[in-house]
């Protein structure tokens, strides 16, 4: 009885209030949607501003010659070389190890400790670069400078990379690359581990059911599935290494050279490290020149990231086939 | 699960061929150690490092050789892969553990009260602290968080709730990707350029540093918030619409509360990532020995910069300055670790009951 009586009353009330809500909601939706849309537009504006101000600050360096008479091109080329050289070495060192550690964490480590170790690796990805820098100078550089580099010079000196003379302080591009490798390792590991864990259970079990050993199962099921993820993770690591500033700036005592020697005192600087080292004491045209090299760095990292997205965007097609 | 399968497979293999026993593995380890000692002697060194390297090289080779004889090729390869995976992990842990260990032990020397209550004003050798740097880091990071969390969250809301996945919104998604890839020093140069245009060449301020960090932090917030908003089931939204709730109220009262745990976790991790940034602060906030709590005017010290300049321009004797450097690095690492743990706790506490 009561419910029947109540029903029309409720619908009547809701009819009137829904009319009101419609009025209010249109206004509310307009405001809220407007703010959200505005935030999206602001992303566009921010990036446009980044480009504009970088170009504005860099422009004088393109049209004027610096006080030391060096052209922008000959100033930038050794830096570009150093940047790609150091980051490439770091990727070469870190990439295979990171994939092995990711496999270890996803398929070899005892389940009970794998989670905690994964957390530790994630945490290390967030350790500030300045901390890696001081560790590189005070721990790693003396260690390799006194032990490894003289040995490399003596025994592998016939290779252009280890020609020497070995720098005893250890503050060479090789040390910088090792520190960069230690820095990007957690990043590549974290991404690779994530995709390895996503390998479909059925793929793994099918492989095992056919009598595969654990390694054969990994080769057949896990690695093909994770390939694109690993590659894009490695590219992101490379991007980080290219843009990394402080660790390199602190470790290297750079010169403006193009040089494949990894253990001598003549080391090329990287773009980012060069900016960090020179910017605080610079003024006038020198600042413009540094910003111009920053623009070049942005272009390089943009290219690397773009390739990474492109690979990631192709998805896990390697596994589906 | 898979371990069981493999063990049973190993058992099956035992019927055909032998199986390595723990005793044999111990023997291999011992033999590898002997080889390591031999290599050490051959290279004429007495270093435990050379012995260790020799052992590490010999162990997988010997393991493979023995397993090949006893168990056959396939199981030997499998054993080699297992050994190498464990060794890779051990190798990687060496520098990482060394890093944490050095920072903690060397940083502990200056974990006293004065380190947190004093600045570097007038400090020539002893004493000195990070009060000005800690204040600066809080202000600069606070500015970045205050700008980038709402900015990033609303962008994510736009992308998930309003955008149609075509045209303009695809552009925004792509631009957020581009923004993620901006090197931190370039973000610093941008902020410098912006404030040079607003003020004068050589501009340094905490606000400029905050703007630089905002550029770095916003895409991280957008990414994580977007992911979390997409996890909210459409059934919840539809239920709200069916009750006549307007869209914006659905977002505020239904979608955001469901996703709030993940959003806050993402924001905390984003803060943890930018709080240790050094390069952009170097070109925007600069360095100063005294306390400056005004973000609009003048140089401002921050923790990473403090660490850097304690090394770069040490006081005399340098050892005391290096002590301060390690201590500030330790404080920075503790801050990051605390933020990290906080993110974990937030994720666990605020996890909506409906989601997994």
List the topology elements.
The complex is a heterodimer of chains A (321) and B (356).
Chain A (H helix, E strand, L loop, with lengths): L1 H62 L8 H37 L2 H15 L3 H28 L16 H25 L3 H9 L4 H30 L2 H6 L19 H8 L6 H29 L3 H4 L1
Chain B lengths: L1 H15 L5 H21 L5 H24 L1 H35 L5 H5 L13 H32 L4 H14 L3 H15 L7 H26 L2 H9 L4 H29 L3 H6 L18 H10 L5 H32 L7
Helix pairs in contact in B: 2-3, 3-4, 4-14, 6-9, 6-11, 6-13, 7-9, 8-9, 9-11, 10-11, 11-14, 13-14
Gross geometry of chain A: flat
Oligomer: heterodimer
Strand content of chain A: under 5%
**Biggest interface and its residues per chain?**
A-B, 99 and 102 residues
Number of strands of chain B: 0
| Uncertain segments of chain B | 1-15
**Count of separate DSSP helical elements of chain B:** 14
Instruction: Classify the secondary structure makeup of chain B into a structural class.
Output: mainly alpha
Summed up, the helix count of chain A is 11
Average pLDDT of chain B, to the nearest integer?
82
Shape of chain B: flat
Report how far apart the termini of chain A are: 65 Å
Characterize the biggest β-sheet of chain A: none
Straight-line N-to-C gap of chain B: 22 Å
Mean pLDDT of chain A: 79
Topology of chain A as a string of helices (H) and strands (E): HHHHHHHHHHH
Précis, in short:
The complex is a heterodimer of chains A (321) and B (356). With 321 residues, chain A is mainly α. Helix content of chain A is 79%, strand content 0%.
Folded structure, characterized:
The complex is a heterodimer of chains A (about 325) and B (about 350). Helix content of chain A is about 80%, strand content about 0%. Chain A has about 325 residues and is mainly alpha-helical. The termini of chain A are far apart. The model of chain A is unreliable at about 1-20 and about 315-320 (pLDDT under 50). Chain B is an all-alpha fold. Chain B has 14 helices and no strands. At the A-B interface, helix 1, helix 2, helix 3, helix 4 and helix 5 of A face helix 1, helix 4, helix 6, helix 7 and helix 8 of B.
